[in-house]
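Worked example

This section walks through a single chain of length 96. The input is the sequence exactly as stored; nothing has been trimmed or padded.
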Amino acid sequence: MPTCQHCHHEWTYGETIRKTFRIKKRCPNCHHVNYVTAKSQWRMNLSSLLGFLIFPLSIFDVSITGIIFIGVCLFMIIVGTFPFIEQFSKEKEYLT
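Given that input, the structure is written out below as tokens.
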């Protein structure tokens, strides 16, 4: 789980999930802003590419409801793993 770089409070899974899609993440303990590191951004982007695994399913004659079901499951798995991948820094880091 990510840790606040100001007060070293370890975020819970729920706190991290609630702020998953925000760039600035305020610590629930000290209210300082934390930023996701560039390394974590790369990891989260790479794990998001797993969502493209549903495109080859149309080749194997999988029904549209099956593709949607698999897509929703993949989305939940990918977003559910983000708190374990995320790390914080005090300053904003850009992807290079």
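What to look for: Residues 64-85 form the longest helix (22 residues).
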